[in-house]
Amino acid sequence: MQSKSPHKTATMFRLIIASLLVVSSYGRVVRKPMLDGRIVGGEEVGLREIPWQVSLQSFGDHVCGGFILDEKNVITAAHCCDAVSTFIVVAGEHDLFEPSGHEVEVDVTRMVKHEAYDEFKFTNDICLLWLATSLSFSDYIANATMPSAGDDFEDGANMTVSGWGSTQEGGAISDVLLKVNVAIVNDTTCDQAYADFGGIEENAHICAGTMPEGGADSCQVRYLASV
Questions:
Q1: What is the pLDDT of residues 165-195, one digit of tens each?
Q2: Whole-prediction pTM value?
Q3: Contact by Cβ (8 Å): 161, 218
Q4: Which N-terminal residues, if any, form the signal peptide (predicted)?
Q5: Cα separation of 124 and 116, whole Å?
Q6: Residue 219, beta-bridge partner list
């Protein structure tokens, strides 16, 4: 499901739709991402605050974010794997232009998109990356804690989105890793908000965002944001 008009009506929620993923050559990194994501109303992440966050880079360009599943695997969005043919994973990344000394670059040997990924319905937007070498965990590099199958996410509960997205529409991406807290929205409200786009597929998406008067959110121009 493409976000052709994310602000279609004055009453529409600004929503994130995530496919159940709740959760280097620095001189050559460019400021314009290939997929134009945004982190609006966010704040800078502390150096050791989100150690599972990685930057996926192609030929020095930051393309997408991802998270560490374990020492040999990273998860990102399937639409990111559609964008380029190869990635370098940069773990421990914080500032795209100023190395901290904690970054580790690892080649990706294999990319596998979810077999039921649908780029139009935006379901199962998940891609698993195999790393060429195992990551060594530290205070700056660690794996994420995954929810269990069947876990429910309470309406109104907070979730955190992080990344290097631009802070305003049409703007440059952030130099530093940002985060934003958004509230989970129930399926009924989300489905109604996106009725003109065919609604959402129940149990296949998680929606979160803020009311139209503004506030913090994360979105993507090409696709509604995958977390």
A1: 776 666 678 899 999 888 888 888 888 888 8
A2: 0.77
A3: yes
A4: 1-27
A5: 6
A6: 38
Give residue limits of the domains in the chain.
14-220
Nearest to 180 by CA among 42, 21, 48: 42
For residue 132 the two structure tokens come to: 């060429």
- What is the rounded CA–CA span in Å between residue 22 and residue 152? 11
Q: Which strand (E) or helix (H) includes residue 57?
A: strand 53-58
Distance between alpha carbon 48 and the CA centroid of its chain, in Å?
Answer: 18
Q: Which residues, in sequence order, are bridge partners of residue 160?
A: 181
Residue scoring higher pLDDT (24 or 71): 71
Quick check: 41 and 14 in contact, CB under 8 A? Answer: no
pLDDT reported for residue 10? 30
**Topology of the domain comprising 14-220:** Thrombin, subunit H (2.40.10)
Distance CA 26, CA 61 (A): 9
Given a cut of 80, whether residue 209 has pLDDT beyond it is no
Give the C-alpha separation, 221 to 4, whole Å.
8
- Asked whether residue 36 carries a pLDDT value surpassing 60, the answer given is no
In 19-117, where do the E strands start and end? 37-40, 43-44, 53-58, 61-70, 73-76, 88-91, 104-113
